[in-house]
Specification:
The structure is a homodimer of 127-residue chains. The first copy, chain A, is mainly alpha-helical and 127 residues long. Chain A is built from six helices and three strands, in the order H-E-H-H-E-E-H-H-H. Chain A has helices at 11-23, 28-36, 43-56, 76-91, 96-106, 111-126, and strands spanning 26-27, 59-62, 69-72. In chain A, helix 2 (28-36) packs across helix 3 (43-56). Chain A binds a DNA duplex (30 and 30 nucleotides) through helix 1 and helix 3.
DNA sequence: GTTCTTTTACGAATAATATCGTATTTTGCT
DNA sequence: AGCAAAATACGATATTATTCGTAAAAGAAC
C-alpha cells in the first residue's frame, strides 16, 4: 500500500483550494477573479501559486486545452481533519470538546443545525 | 479606547504560547526543554523566538532577575477565537456546525464531555 | 499569414520565518 | 578578585513563501 504523505498547504494555497473545492474545476483566471474580491494580487502571482500547487500534487489540471483547467487533488475532508487535529492539540490542549464548545458558543447556528448536532450527540452517547 | 490590533502568532510562536498558557510562566530553558520533546531545535533558536515574541508583544517578561521569566500576554481564548473564525471561513465554508460535527466525529469525547456539550446545546435551543 | 489578446513558463526579487554561531553579560563559587 | 557556568544579545545565514516582470507560446480575429 502506498501511503501518500500529507502535504500541508500554505495559507495562500488554502485560499485557492477553498475556491477549487467550491467549484470543482476552475481556470487560473477564474480563481484569480474570485481571489481578487478579498485580496490584492497580480494575475501572475495566482498563476505561479497554482503551478507550484500542481508540482506539489495539491491540484491536478487538464492542459490539453489552451486555458488549463485545475481541480483539487487533496480532499477538503482530509485537510479539515489534519488542521482540526493540529488545532485541538496546540490550541485546546487536546480536548476536542473544548473546541466544540468554543465553536458553538461563538458562532450562531440555526435550529436545524442544532438538531443535526443533537442527532450526532445521541449517537455518540449510545456507545 | 485603545484597540490593540491582533497579532497573528506564527506556527512556532503558537507552540511556545501553548507551553506558556499551560504553565503561566516559564524561562527560556524550561520552554526549550518542553519543546525538545517534540521537535529538534537549538537553545538559541528558542531564545531568539521568544525575544521576537517579546518585541511583538505576544509575551511579557520579568528581566529583573538573571534568568528572565516569560508569561503570555495574548490570551488563549482570544487566539482560539481568531483561529477558529478563520478556519470556519476558509475550511468549512462559513458553517460552524460543520466544524462541530467534524470535531465531534473524529475525536472521541468522554460521557462527561458529551454531557457538557448537551448542556450548551440545550441552552442554545431555548433561545 | 499577420496582428492582437490571452495564457503559460520561468527566473528573479522580496518578504517572512526559522536557525544558529559567537560575543557579551550576569552571577555563583572558590 | 578570578574563573566557570548559564543566560542573553545580536548579527548572519538558511529556508520557505509570496510577488512580479518579461518572454515565449497558443489561439482568435481579421
Amino acid at each position: 500500500m502506498v501511503t501518500t504523505k500529507y502535504i500541508k498547504p500554505t495559507e495562500s494555497e488554502l485560499e485557492i483550494l477553498r475556491i477549487l473545492w467550491e467549484r470543482n474545476t476552475a481556470s487560473v483566471r477564474e480563481v484569480h477573479e474570485e481571489l481578487s474580491k478579498t485580496k490584492e494580487a497580480g494575475y501572475t502571482t495566482t498563476l505561479k501559486l497554482m503551478q507550484i500547487m500542481h508540482e506539489k500534487g495539491l491540484v491536478g489540471r487538464d492542459d490539453s486545452v489552451k486555458t488549463h483547467i485545475y481541480h483539487p487533488v487533496v480532499s477538503r475532508e482530509k485537510t479539515q481533519k489534519h488542521l482540526i487535529g493540529k488545532m485541538i492539540t496546540t490550541l485546546f490542549g487536546g480536548s476536542s470538546t473544548e473546541l466544540v464548545l468554543h465553536a458553538l458558543g461563538n458562532h450562531k447556528a440555526s435550529p436545524a443545525e442544532l438538531e443535526e448536532i443533537q442527532q450526532l450527540l445521541n449517537n455518540l452517547k449510545k456507545q
